[in-house]
Design goal:
By secondary structure, the protein is mainly beta. Helices cover 13% and strands 34% of the residues. A hairpin with a 7-residue loop joins strand 7 and strand 8 (107-108). The longest helix is centred in the first third of the chain and has 17 residues, at 2-18.
């Protein structure tokens, strides 16, 4: 009886010590980042609906795990097909600006790098 108890105790200690999970150096990142969608032209806010991973967003923002992939879809109200559908990986808090140019579908403004933005400066001088 005593030998059985002693063997059970030794085996239990052995299993506890050597079968534990080794997690040193393996940090699991469980932080969440906020993704917010805004429109460059504010008048478009009432014309479009924003969906994150297939779910409609009421306030145009969502929280997701850092470095996870997010599917962003933007629908014109009343339409069945998204005008924009794109997978995005969030590595930092991300603010996404949407821009609609004449004759084109809505797009993420950073993906429209072929366009140059400028600020006109008018100098009036009289001599």
């Amino acid at each position: 009886m005593m030998n059985k108890f002693l063997y059970s105790l030794i085996i239990s200690i052995f299993i506890f010590v050597f079968a534990g999970c080794e997690t040193e150096g393996e940090d699991i990142d469980m932080r969440f980042e906020t993704c917010t969608v805004s429109f460059v032209q504010q008048e478009l806010r009432s014309s479009y609906e924003v969906y994150f991973n297939g779910e409609k967003s009421i306030n145009r923002s969502t929280s997701v795990k850092k470095n996870s992939t997010l599917k962003l879809e933007v629908y014109k109200i009343g339409e069945k097909q998204p005008e924009l559908s794109q997978e995005i990986t969030l590595d930092n808090s991300k603010d996404i600006e949407l821009l609609k140019l004449v004759g084109r579908d809505i797009a993420i403004s950073s993906s429209l790098e072929e366009y140059t933005t400028f600020t006109p400066i008018i100098n009036v001088s009289s001599k």
